[in-house]
Amino acid sequence: xxxxxxxxxxxxxxxxxxxxxxxxxxxxxxxxxxxxxxxxxxxxxxxxxxxxxxxxxxxxxxxxxxxxxxxxxxxx
Length: 76
Known about the structure:
single chain; alpha+beta; 57% helix
């Protein structure tokens, strides 16, 4: 597994920006967007609306929390 960080261009709330994120986190964000039937830009815009820190860190934590929720629901 590689931890190479890649810059991804996104549009957040109508503004073009880039996010530096490991490819694995980006892939999982895309899977979440697909599962929630929203674009990756919409998903990131929604996450951005609730963040208080660094965007890349916020996205990593979002992926982790999504995984924790799914694991928890599978254990019930």
